[in-house]
Automatic annotation (TrEMBL):
This is ShKT domain-containing protein. Residues 306-340 form the ShKT domain. The chain crosses the membrane at residues 48-68. InterPro entries: ShKT_dom (IPR003582). It comes from Coccolithus braarudii. Residues 133-148, 268-283 have a biased composition (Low complexity). Pfam families: ShK.
Amino acid sequence: MAGTELRQTAAVRLARTFSSSSFGSDSSKSPILPVCARHQPQKQSRTCAVLMIGSVLLLTMLGVHHVFSPHLSVSDDSTTTVGSMEMPTVSVVQTDAAQRRRMQAGRDEREQELDDRQRQKVAIANEERQKTADAAQHAADQRTAAARSVSEARNRAAKEAADRLEEARKRHQEDGMRLDDDRKRQEEVRKEQEKDRERKQEEERLADEKVLGQKRAELERQAELARREEQLDARRRSREEEMERETRMQMHTRRLLPQRKQEQGGMPTATRAAATAAAATPTGLRKEKDLISAGNTKLAPRKLPCLDARRLCAGWARLGECTNNKGYMHRECRLSCGLCLPEEDEAAGAEEKDKRDGEEVSEDGDEDEDEEAEGTKTSE
């Protein structure tokens, strides 16, 4: 019975030792074998298996020791008497003391072995804990180094980005300054070109104005020449018309000349000869008119009859001679020009007609002289 109690006590102590060494300060709060409890984490399964194996080995060793250790025989105890039991012998006492010493030595050895194993386990656990701590520290150091490297990389990237931005800003500023300089130069060049263009335009305008002035002067000169030519043409036409009219009047005068000669029977012979000779020359008509006018001045003036002195007065009036040749038509064609009513004194009208012919010849001669003088001045 004592050996069984000792074995149970040793097993309990060993279990408590393993429990305290495995769980540290938490052994007071956990059961005797907490690793064998239900619902433990999976990471403690290995420790539980080790403890169970150790307990089995310890129990096996205790059993083997009990089997091979000496103990009292049951037959001897059963054959002893009450007297012998009351008075044990010295050999039995010595045997019990030796057995207790052996048991104590065994317990000491087992305790020493358990202590050694406990120390080994503690050392292993401490080593593993140290390794875990070292690994954790190493991981923390690696994380710190990684964070430091990341921070340094970020700072370096930020610095590089800031440097790039600063460089880009400086380059942009330089480009802006260069663009401003280019823009200023272009503006100066544009202003110079604008001034040159304005100067050229002003020169061209002055040249054009000069050319236009010359052309205008030339056109005015040509217009003046054309106007003078038109005036000369008009005067030439007027002279031709006057010559035609003079020729026509000359024909009328020649036709009336015999009658005048008969009427002027008392005219001097020299005067009639001069008038006849003057009729053959271009200026003879004028001289003849002068002579006839001089002869007619001696006749007594009479009232002009309201008759047409010429047969062509009606045609001349239709042609507008009453307006173009008022002096002649108003004297010779009073009836056709509508100046008065007709009268019955045809004989007096015939005499007055001859008188007016002479006066008309003298007036036409004066007008021809004035026109020739004006034509001479114009040609000069």
